[in-house]
Every structure is written in C-alpha cells, then in structure tokens.
Amino acid sequence: MWNLPNALTFFRIALVPLLVVVLLTRFEGSEFWGLGIFLLAALTDLFDGILARKLGAVTKTGIFLDPVADKLLMSAAFISLVELNLAPAWMVVVIVGREFAVSGLRHVAQDQGVVIPANWWGKLKTLSQIVAVSLSIVSHQLGRWSHLSRVALWVALFMTVASLVSYFGSFWPKVVGNER
After folding, report:
1. In this structure, which topology does domain 4-176 adopt according to CATH?
2. Domain boundaries defined on the chain
C-alpha cells in the first residue's frame, strides 16, 4: 500500500484543505500561494500515475484514491472560485456533476465487468480545467487576465461536456446492454 505514487496521492489529498484556506483567506500574495499549491497538487496527479506504471507499483489503494484525490482537488478549486466570484456556480455544478456522472457510470460498468479507461477527452478535460482554475486564480490578483480566464472557463466547460458525451456515448450501450 505505501509506495511513492500512493504517497503523492495522499499528499495531493492533504493539499486540498490547504488550497481552500489559502484561496479564501485574504493576505498579501494569497492568490500566488494558492496557484502554487494548486499547480503542485496537479503535478502530483501527473507523476503518481507515471511512477506507478513505471515502477510497477499500481495498487488497489492507488486505483481507488487517485480518482478521489483528483475529484477532491478540482471540486475544491472550482467551488473556491465560486466563493471568490471568479466562476459562475452553474458552470461549476456542470463541471462537478460530470465527475459524479462518469464515476457512477464507471461504478455500474465495473459491476458488470466493463472497464472504462481514461480517454483523450478526459485528459483534455483535466488539462483545460487546470488552465481555467490557474488563470482564474491569477486574474483575481491581476484583473487584466479576467477576460482570458473567462474564455478558459468556457473551454473547460466545453471539454467537460464533450468528455461526458464521449464516455456515455461509448460505454452507456455496453452498460445498459448488459442489464438483466
């Protein structure tokens, strides 16, 4: 259970409450500290998977906790953006709702022996969300970036919906086709 990839996942989970506190507490440089914490956590997501495969250290703990850590990080970041009036709540509901929907689909699929691997839409969704959150955090400090951060939020929303459609389009027939 305890290996470097899992340690990175636990570290990412530990960074989530720190991220929220830093983003929602007003102090000199809080946005830049928040951005640093967010990007550090996002990097752990990249490296834990690479290391787990490279080191042959894929564990049940990691398989379970990695997506939980990802969803905690992104949900906390987006909900913090709503609190800071940097993202519309309806957008965040769609973004977070997609996570629940795809997780539910994966759960039902797994019960039926269908594996739903990550696809490029999911990876692009994650990248666009990281960019959108990062630009939104920076725009809070540097107002001139606010237009770019709004565009990035719309791109993230589009990628989120496209990813949702991709997963459900590809796997819903396989999952409901196995209904008894």
Report:
1. Four Helix Bundle (Hemerythrin (Met), subunit A) (1.20.120)
2. 4-176
137 CB contacts (<8 Å, ≥6 apart)?
23, 31, 34, 35, 38, 81, 86
Each residue of 166-177: pLDDT tens digit? 999 998 888 887
Nearest one of 39, 34, 44 to 137, comparing CA atoms: 34
Count CA within 13 A, CB hemisphere, residue 148.
11
> Mean pLDDT for the chain?
90
Contacts (Cβ under 8 Å, ≥6 apart) of 82: 88, 89, 92
End-to-end CA distance of the chain: 36
Give the pLDDT confidence of 96-123 residue by residue, as tens digits. Answer: 999 999 999 998 998 888 888 888 999 9
Q: Is the dihedral of CA 138, 77, 71, 159 positive or negative?
A: negative
Taking the whole predicted model, whether its pTM rises above 0.85 is answered as yes
